[in-house]
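Journal club prep, notes for RB
We'll compare a predicted complex against what the paper describes. Inputs for the iron/sulfur cluster case:
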Amino acid sequence: MSISRRLLLKSSAAGGALAAFAGGFSDTGRKLVKGAWAGDKPDHAISGNAPAPEFRVDPATGDLTPTPGQIVANVACLGCTTLCGVRVRVDVEKNKVLRVAGNPYSPLSTDPFLPYGTPIRDSFKSLSRLDEKGLKGRSTACGRGNAALEMLTSPFRVATPMKRVGPRGSSQWEPIAFDRLVEEIAEGGDLFGEGPVPGLRALRDLKTPIDPAAPELGPKVNQVALLSSVNDGREPFVRRFFNQALGTINFVGHGSYCGGAYRSGSGAAFGDAKKMPHAKPDLQNAEFVLFIGTAPSNAGNPFKRQAMLLAKGRTDGVLNYVVVDPVLTNADNRAAAERSNWIPIRPGTDGALVMGMMRWMFENGRIDANYLSQPNGKAAEAAGEAGWCNATHLAIQQAGHPRDGRMLRASDLGWVTLDEKERYGAKDAFVVLDPSGTPVPHDALLGPAALFHEGTVATPAGEVAVKTSLTLLREQAMRLDLAGYADACGIPAVVIAGLAREFTSHGKKAAANTHGGMMAGNGFYNAFGVVTLNTLIGNLNWKGGTIFGGGRFPDEQDGPRYKLASFPGQVKPSGTAISRPVPYEKSSEFKAKKEAGKP
Ligand code: SF4
């Protein structure tokens, strides 16, 4: 068959397909031609029946003309937990929200955002194309933020409390009045025809312990827990009621269904399991960012700001990034072009990838030894580092030792005598080896300590086997070869090695991030591993690395007019939270088992 005949056959096949397509969609096509998508006769050929803009700016003179009948309110969007500043345009006569757009004063909607002292008129001008500035100054609300106006008008919005009236899972509900809601929650009763349900009045027992044998659990009121799935900015009021008025300690903000696993893994890596701090990549200055289990601008808020910075970074700057995700999302798309790559992974196996990368980094000497070998803040400062970690601190590694696996402390060597409460606390220094190999308190050294070491130290109780933390991490990374890690996570060994090479090719201007991901049962460990990648290249709080936020406004505090943080008769909740954020070894259960000779 000649080329021309083949082409002809192909063309006729394509023509047939097109004809079938046109037939199937002829009605839609007719409507499109008629402009039925926006009414039979749209006001404008391009903008259809979109409402008039709230203002116009004369590009020649800069004069601003507000559109009569519209007002603009700069408010916060409650469409998701990002709480972006948005600009809501309202039709005054109809009292109807016309459109949601970006607020140019908000860093979550605009980059760079306007100083707060900028007059409103100037803020409008900043959004226009005055002075041929194109899209500079553009301020956006995301699609969901735009759709938020449906919260006011959708016939499906939930506008009154709904009570279940059928068996669980039957989706049978009825609207009830707020008074009845309060009555039923406070007083309880046979609320669902399934037997008595105690109300909050009966559950508010601030004296009787949950378990007399475990007083640390606190009073029975702690058996009331509120699981909050989203912080919409009004959480302090909910806490005010549940914690300070009712008295339970159990207001739960995060679980592994959202950011809990990531936050607890990150908190553990940063040494604060209570506040669970977490950091983010410096997208404005980074050269390479590895997103594992999270898709930038799809997950891990602030979504919009992250999307803006990511787009700017890859367009204007030198940012390249890789998204490791079981699913291909639009975090990796045509707009990103060759500046982004997607690597699929078997769900929940991120730890295998991370440990494989660590193995390659240890084998190839691609770790930041200058950062890792500083045992305290002063030493780090002297070495020109922005922080320090416990890589050099010694851990007890002796089977049968009562503290096997724990960090060696000054009190173990008899350097300090502390009572039971203070022992192993902040006053009990960790132990490192100075350059001569002599054990010293970690905070006494003004220079680097031994990074890798395995040996024994003399204690009043005899010789104790120890290793530095980094030695232990290296051992764990060496447990499998790259082929083994590849088998576990489904990413070829050569790709794992390539990722490690790239990650360690930018000095401190690289970051690994998993904010918004790791929602699996093993998410804590996976998140801990990802954050530790940053530790190994010493990028914390470095330009282009991983950075902590600059603080925040307080959610609540007592002001001159309203007392939001306190009130007469408030309760200070006590006991142990349902998440048990305390070592098991400190529990009465552990003590009782130990006394009974049980392991
Ligand atoms: S990211 Fe979108 S939905 Fe979320 S607060 Fe901002 S504008 Fe609203």
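Talking point for the session: Confidence is low (pLDDT under 50) at residues 1-25.
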